[in-house]
Write a structure and sequence with these properties.
six-stranded parallel β-sheet; 11 strands; Exostosin_GT47
Length: 472
Amino acid sequence: MPSKLHISPSSRSRSPILLLILSFLAISLLFLLFSLSSSQTRILSPYPNPSLALKPETSFLASLEDFLAEKAPRSSTVLQVTEEELTELDEKIFMRESERAYGDPYYPLEFPIRVYVYEMPRKFTYDLLWLFRNSYRETDNLTSNGSPVHRLIEQHSIDYWLWADLIAPESERLLKSVVRVRRQEEADLFYIPFFTTISFFLLEKQQCKALYREALKWVTDQPAWKRSGGRDHILPVHHPWSFKSVRRYMKNAIWLLPDMDSTGNWYKPGQVFLEKDLILPYVPNVDLCDAKCLSESESKRNTLLFFRGRLKRNAGGKIRAKLVAELSGADGVVIEEGTAGEGGKAAAQIGMRKSIFCLNPAGDTPSSARLFDAIVSGCIPVIISDELELPFEGILDYRKIALFVSSSNAMQPGWLLKFLKAISPAQIREMRRNLGQYSRHFLYSSPAQSLGPEDLVWRMVCNSLSVAKNFT
């Protein structure tokens, strides 16, 4: 008869304890594995905030809606500065700059550039953004030449993109080239967040001029402006019509411009200088043709040369009419009259994505928003402008993505088409690949991206600020 297994009372009493210990160890092990996994995820993520890993927003309207809904304060406080505080600030800035510039008045800056953002009254900032937001859907809100006002404001909205990035919480920012400081004596630069383009287009003429005068007085009353004469201040005046009535009083500031306007139609002599002012790209008016789009559209690009826009322009843009007369009806060439409305945007986008080359003659000024539409559409720009200064020259090599043609050559009968047809398929493919890589440099976004236009602005500033601050 087999013997029965004998379990002692002490063994039976230890079993529940053993199970409890094993269960605790198993739970601890699972917790440890979960922690390691989460930690690894955080280490691998390039963003301080996981939500920033999402696709950046490049639509001005969508970004503005989010900004006003989530980030715009209900009220702003404007600090009053006493004479004692002004004197103290002047001394602190003088001591700091003396230490940095010891032995070399043209001291180089180092990243990150430290920027103090003025807290201007709401009438210059948030109120203007709300005015635009509440009026951009009006279909009758047009300029004298029929262009929708909100499209022009979007194309020149660099003041919004730069300011929105600067004032965002550090946990939501990605740029390492610039940091916002809260103390004026710590600043390399002072940013003036006045929306000059919105005010120009959406306010009545006299109301706009009055607001310009108020902005001028507010800024020039600031102690930092008084001590430097504005040479370390940044002023966005990206639309050539904006701020015209008072900008001669702020000519020492670093202006953010669409171009230098060598025609003299928009900027008076002595107002803008390549040595101190910066050229920024227009905001593209069409959607980005990404890598997938570029690949899918390559076989569909059957148009040799495409142009859509106003065929007659003023001053430097007069060459357009001559080019139209020369090229109209030529095989492989599409030239269309068009404006910047929704229908025009769709037509331009379709046309550019079907074309190998996009014609970019001068507009009213040497530059044109069309250039940046072509770049993000994968359409190789053919730039015909003898006096054009491009954004971020010195950082970007435009010869890799664009063709430059002199006006005299372009006007010779048959010359331009013969030139374009002689470009090899291999060179075209290489330039289109380069366009795919360069597009990131012209896409404003929220949050601002490394090597995007916001980032390149501060890299350019770093190279030119020592000149600007000593410019007379």
